[in-house]
Amino acid sequence: MKFATLALVLAAAIPTMAQTANTFQPASTNVWGAEYPRIDASGRAEFRIKAPDASKVQINFWGNPKLDMTKGADGEWTLTTKPLVPGFHYYTVIVDGFEASDPGSHTFFGGGKDASGIEIPEPGSTYYLPTHVRHGAVRELWYFSKVTGTWRHAMIYFPPGYAANTRTRYPVLYLQHGAGEDETGWIKQGHANFIMDNLLAAGKTKPFLIVMAYGYARRAGYVEPVLTGRPFGSPEAMKAMQEMFSAFEDDLTQVLIPYVDTHFRTLSDRDHRAMAGLSMGGMQTFDITFHHLDMFSYIGGFSGAAGIIGGGKFDPKTAYNGAMADPVAFARRVHLLWIGVGTDEPRMMYTGLENLHHELEAAHVLHVFYESPGTSHEWQTWRRDLNDFAPRLFR
Amino acid sequence: MKFATLALVLAAAIPTMAQTANTFQPASTNVWGAEYPRIDASGRAEFRIKAPDASKVQINFWGNPKLDMTKGADGEWTLTTKPLVPGFHYYTVIVDGFEASDPGSHTFFGGGKDASGIEIPEPGSTYYLPTHVRHGAVRELWYFSKVTGTWRHAMIYFPPGYAANTRTRYPVLYLQHGAGEDETGWIKQGHANFIMDNLLAAGKTKPFLIVMAYGYARRAGYVEPVLTGRPFGSPEAMKAMQEMFSAFEDDLTQVLIPYVDTHFRTLSDRDHRAMAGLSMGGMQTFDITFHHLDMFSYIGGFSGAAGIIGGGKFDPKTAYNGAMADPVAFARRVHLLWIGVGTDEPRMMYTGLENLHHELEAAHVLHVFYESPGTSHEWQTWRRDLNDFAPRLFR
């Protein structure tokens, strides 16, 4: 075998080597060897995109104005941002109207696609990073769902010691991603495993399993309606969405939970089962747990909660068939009702959850309301949410 | 919380709904709701890319001529391919010189980036698909490497029954990805877990663990040389690559293997440890196992094997300090030497491995030479390789 074969095999692997020392360093979310995007100590990010024949290239941090890049003499487009809020930010690159991920970044499932993401370190925060403590296990799970008629993929976190303590049974938290994300988000973007590892090592939380399900489902034999020309929010689109939510609810409660309780050493009574979710996952959590209070006793909504579907004012007296109408009985039954929001979230989201908090307060419904300072509808908010929520479970 | 909040949260999640019945169906590798790319029964693929302001858009199946797309009146670019070889194919989209992944496809790490991939079904083949058999567990592993001074990520497959059979110890196969790929490839692209599940259910293989490591490493404190202007294959670039290989060898043999043997119920003698890899991983396998024959007794090279690094002719009499010089002693010591190649691989690769096979044969070195009919340097070849290789282990 000749030298050229080596070139054939290896050409793709040689990383771009560091050019010069610089205060900017490659982001931790980059692929091996990618120099860009890179970040400085103030949180500014530099992007570099190869698009020699393009006439317009932009960086799109979702929910923000698109940022125009500048073409250099070498045909590469560059941009340096202002300091970014610490945490994980999705972004895409738009080249002559084509929106795609940045080849320099790993991808993270969000916005319904494998999108780019950039991690801006938060000075002094290690609670969501791998540290020298005992690590739990993250595993993938494939299960066949009689509801959807398909194989479905989920992720599970096992606390350190699960494998060794063969006589111990554990509570379970079902933890859901947001709209456009999937079951991989809480590990890849959220670092839920490292948050738990660090909380456990510090003695701040009880050990429990975390199951992260794929939050979309279509019933076996379901034919998608043709929604062409139907705007978002039209009765047809709403019905399709509610059907998806209903199929997911059945898959979770009739297939996945029994599967988990059969295959792993869980405590399977309602006192040892929690559910939480972010954004759409928070709405799903409220709908599912309140429909199945015989199955759940801890409820968390991270930037998404009750009273959203259907719109209008949320009334604790009548919501969910009056489950909260008697606050004392409710507090005895539901051990934790937890709602969180970032102070910099879009106004509607922030005020919506703040109103929910006030309505619950006015109705004397015991709950926790947590505000993440300076963060928006993004993973840094949800990491903090989990870090506050987890220690309150299964006490 | 008002209806608009729902729109805010959910807008990204509503899948594109099926438009019309068609013989083309969305690829299994697509993201939720993406209609394109789609495939017909003959294996033709239709692509559709939104790039309204672009002047040139191409689909790039790596190693093949780029395919020009055609712009439609709606600003979307389309292309229908000829029938494609069954299996998994990486591809990218090139828009005015910007090469990126297709937002309709999930990404798979290859070519040093998160690239698109399309799965063309192989009629009648289910050996690499989830079926109604017992499934093993795939888990992620984070370990701290004293060699690199960093946290490293690996994947492990546990056969069905591992958790329940708490007194059973298992052999281990270390299975490596190719150049430009990473530790996720054997599960995401290769479906190694499903291949094992199906082999085990059919009683065709012994149960064992599979550890999939990240095949790149930089020693702690190592400063990358500046390789600007140094062509691939230059002494400087070769030295940098060999340093990377050497660091990986130390990480694997000094850190990961002891970690696995400490944390899991393994049989840790050389008779119960195998290594195999594809392409670059095959070369790494030959180098590492022959340097550590005290640790390994089963060796597999999938489209990549001995005698590549350094070029020139491979001489079984002198290679690896004469480990094969006495073929009888070698066959007693190494229980399996396995080499595979696809018949449609690039000529250099095919003839290189065929020559290796002939040289081993001429020197009476016992080995298996497997040819995958009609497949190239691609995952369908390597799935077949594993399906043939695994049943020969630990007999």
What does this structure look like?
Two copies of one chain form a homodimer. Chain A has an eight-stranded mixed β-sheet, sandwiched between helices. In chain A, strands 4, 5, 8, 9, 10 and 11 form a six-stranded antiparallel β-sheet that branches. In chain A, strands 1-2-3-7-6 form a five-stranded antiparallel β-sheet, with no helix packed on it. Chain A starts with a helix and ends in a 6-residue tail after the last helix. With 395 residues, chain A is an alpha+beta fold. Chain A is globular. Chain A is built from nine helices and 19 strands. Chain A folds into two domains: 3-120, Immunoglobulins (Immunoglobulin-like, Sandwich), CATH 2.60.40; 137-392, Alpha/Beta hydrolase fold, catalytic domain (Rossmann fold, 3-Layer(aba) Sandwich), CATH 3.40.50.1820. Chain A has helices at residues 3-10, 185-188, 192-201, 235-263, 280-291, 319-322, 327-333, 347-362, 379-389, and strands at 25-26, 38-39, 45-50, 57-61, 67-68, 70-71, 76-80, 87-95, 98-100, 107-110, 113-120, 137-145, 150-158, 172-176, 209-212, 273-278, 298-302, 336-342, 368-372. Mean pLDDT of chain A is 92; it is low at 11-21. Chain A is 26% helix and 25% strand. At the A-B interface, helix 1, strand 9, strand 10, strand 12 and helix 4 of A face helix 1, strand 9, strand 10, strand 12 and helix 4 of B. Strand 12 of chain A pairs antiparallel with strand 12 of chain B, so a sheet runs across the interface.
